[in-house]
Amino acid sequence: MTAIAVKDRIESTPSGHIIKLTEDESKLYPGSGWKIARFEDGHLEELFDLTIAQQQEVQAKIDATLEWAKNAKGELWSVMCSCDELVGPEPFSPSSTDDIALLQYRLSENDTFFTME
To answer: What's the rounded Cα separation, in Å, for the pair 115 and 49?
Structure first.
C-alpha cells in the first residue's frame, strides 16, 4: 500500500468533512458512533469505540481510551462513524488537554451516544 497523509484523505462535502473508507477499511467498520481511529501510513488500522452503557462509566472509559491511545502506533483521529464514512475527523493526542476535554464532553454531555441496556 502507498503511504498517504490522513489529512490528504479528508474530503469536504456539503454536510462537513469526511474520510471515505476503502474496501479493506470497511471491514473494520463496527457501526455508527464516536471512535478514535488509528491510521498507519494514512490507512485505517483500528477503531477504538467510545460507546458507554452507563453514565458512571465515563471516567473508566476516558482512562481506558487514554491508555490505549498512549500505546497506539500511527496517527490518531477522533471521528464519528456514519454510513461507512468517518465524519468530522480531528487529530487526537492523549497528551492534549483540549483533546481530553473534547473526549470527556463526548462521553458525558451528550446522552445520544449511550447504548441501551
So the answer is: 12
Q: pLDDT of 34-68, one tens digit each?
A: 999 999 999 999 999 888 766 667 888 899 999 99
Residue by residue, DSSP assigns 50-109 as --BSSGGGHHHHHHHHHHHHHH--SEEEEEEEETTEEEEEEE--TT-HHHHHHHHHHHHT
The predicted model scores a pTM of 0.86
Q: Is the pLDDT of residue 117 over 60?
A: no
Sign of CA dihedral 43, 46, 51, 57: negative
Secondary structure element (H or E) that encloses residue 25, with its range: helix 23-26
Residue pair 21/84 in contact by the 8 Å Cβ criterion: yes
Mapping DSSP onto H, E and C, the string for 68-80 reads: HHHHCCCEEEEEE
Residue 17 near residue 87 (C-beta atoms within 8 A): yes
